[in-house]
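User: Fold this, then the next.

Assistant: Folding the first:
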Amino acid sequence: MSLNSRKRTLLFIVMATSAFVPFMASAVNIALPSLSRDLRLDAVSMSWIATAYLLASTAFILPFGRLADIHGRRSLFIIGLSLFMTASLLAGAAPNFSWLLTARIAQGLGTSMMLPTGMAMLTAAFPPGERGRALGLNVSAVYVGLSVGPVLGGLITQALGWRFLFFLMGPLSLLILLLLLKNLRPEPAETPGEPFDAPGSLLFAFSISALLYGFTSLPGATAIGIIALGLAAMLTFIWRQSQTAHPIVDLSLFRFNRTFAMSNVATFLNYGATTAVVFLLSLYLQYVKGVSPRDAGMLMMVQPLVQALTSPIAGRLSDRIEPQRLASAGMMMTVLGLLLLSALSSATSTGFILACLILLGFGFGFFSSPNTNAIMSSVAKRNYSIASATVSAMRQLGQIFSMGLATLALNGTVGHRVITPELHDPFIITIRLVLQASAALCFIGVFASLARGKMRPSTESVE
């Protein structure tokens, strides 16, 4: 197989797995009511089916990024894809909650192996002049999976049952695995034989677990205590990384690489400002506007569709135009979209909401691909896997923060009450406040994006 053919095959493989992950997450959310009826789950158990997957995929993403550098990206990608495939089949056959929860954790572990290694393999295969386009197409695949997940997930669940959602991932994963084994040659590890910091990995996993559990349990003294414990564990993890000779994360990347550091900060702030928007607007459309779940899903699908169309264009542009400019412009579009949405009222038209979602889609599309290109092009080849894992972790942490902010605000105004017409006014006020705070957070992110400076392609990064 020629070099160009191998690159195209690799791009297809990584794009396919990048689409699987958000598709699975969003489709399972739609299937949760059917699933809970079948397995007789209460609300808390049902929420853990979604939360366990997010937890496993976030808590272990940095350790697996480091292991990929030590043992080889292709090897860890194969293990992750095989685990994801096996766990999907086991989830489809789950007879009870414990079985399904274990399978979802295994799916998350498989995902945390695939995400950083896939992006790192793309970065290594495509030189700077082609890298932005490849990464943009990969980001587009993520948004395609996110877009079709609720619609296709609902159709499959209604026609064939929730178990088929999981069973579907089995043969699809197997086809991708066979294609990878047949066409992509093994590549040497970047840091073979280096020690692995197991205690640091456990500290990071515990920190993420405590932060996720704490934020999803807000408000309350116990939740705040758990968050404080998670933050203490994170600070301990950072201190340990500065002391050990072979850290999971090379902190010098943050201290001495301004492009890498500020681009990751921008990632956290961008996702920290936007993730809860879909959640809040979905509730607003159904409770306040009386839109059906199907129609609400169709309307909300517009944003990721625009992102999917925009990301490859922005990625290709970032090969010629400074990512600093493109990503910052994208964040400013997002700020504007959030500010416009913060004027929501019970009389707001769906046309206005649709226009805001389109603007947010453009903003996200122009931010994500150039920002990823800047991060991956700012490090040496030996750090590709851990750089990919870091930006993925920042994205997940931002999502957790955003949902925690929305949960805290809703608990403070609506609480555990059902959202009835009498509560529409305080509910809308809560949405406005969260959107205004999110716009402010994203505006700060614009300055972080600008502060990254111009991208300086390292000769090491293209070796």
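Now the next one, as you asked:
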Amino acid sequence: MSKQTLVKLMFTFLLLLCLSNAFSQKRYDLSVKEAVELAFKNVTEVKNAELDYEIQNAQNKEITGQALPQVSGAGSINRYIKLPQVLFPSSEEGIYKVLKENGLVAPTTKAPPPTFTSFSFQQPWNTSIGASLSQLLFQPDVFVGLKARKTALNLSQANLELVKERVKDSAYRRYYAILIAQKQSDFLRGGIERLQKLYHDDSIMFVNGFAERLDLDKVQVQLTNLQTSQSVLDNSIKLAYAALKYSIGISQNDTVVLREGLTNEDIKRNALDAQFKYEDRKEIQAIGYSRRLQELDVKRYKMGYLPTLSAIGGYTISGMGQQFITNNNFIWFKSAVIGLNLNIPIFDGFQRRYKVQQAQFNLQKVDNGIENLKQVIDLQYTASKESLKNALLNLDAQQRNVQLAENVYQTTKKKFESGIGSSFEVLQADNDWQTAQSNYFTGLYNAIIAKISYQSALGKLD
């Protein structure tokens, strides 16, 4: 193979590889709600919770099946290689007794010892086929299980909603963290552009003897710091996008574009208007269903003292003969049976009593868990509400501070451009503006996270 041919093959391979990657990548333009819906479809934890719901649904149908008629069939065909034998005794004792009574033989005459003759009640070919039916009329644990079906399904649904709440919370936090980081990145770029212009203006003044080298160096230090911060922030945004992709269950090769904005008004809108109710929390709903199931478990063991009753029926066809069943001389028999089976528990060594006690203790543990959960929810609600109040106050203060720092910068810049101020004053005002803006973005992030935490505490994260 020539070198030119090898190069062509390598180029073709790389081109196909690039095209394959291009077609495999997807682009998602997402609002925060669309990101959450995408997570519900893709995240493994949600998928498994949905499968748990389907498993419970199948188990419910299995329990229902226990209360339906049970029908089974059986058949067999046998060929005896050697027929089973039974022994039948043969004795002349009775004959000799009669002869003695009639004087036909001497009284001392003894009868011959008995003999045994073997024969079989079976035929070489034997077959049977039949069906049996049973219908449960009353069995305590089955009927309690039938009552528990809906509650168990509701518990699986509540657990699914719990998983979705966690996934939604994660998606919200990561989505808004990226939005804020991007806003901060845009501001840093504006700061870099301002310092680059200031450096350019100072360079001209330095050449003309109106500025010192020290002025240039100060601007360069600040510019380098901003460029470094920009690089670190851009890398953090890439990592944040990777985390978001993972949290919504899409490939790292896919592209995500966030098409939703975030302002102070968005955070403040209806921030503290919602009413608190325990029933809105999915955890309370789930543990409520768990308590109901535990109550049914107590009932199941208590009803274990009751008898069980079932109806049975069967029909069998059997046959035997010297030759295979297709022979006309094969003899057939039919039989049928119906009846009731009753099982009455009398004494089990007090096992059921202690099973009832265990179930009651478990019910008390669930009640204790409910009280503890309410205390945890109270703490979450109080802490998140106060955090949100403080975050909103701080956000307002930081927003005012940013506006003030910007005004100072603009005034200082005009004085510098008019020749009555120094570049150092501009640099210092710009640095103060950068600091105020950084504090504002931190406050913005804390405010949105506090709002998400507060809505989660309410059970109303939309």
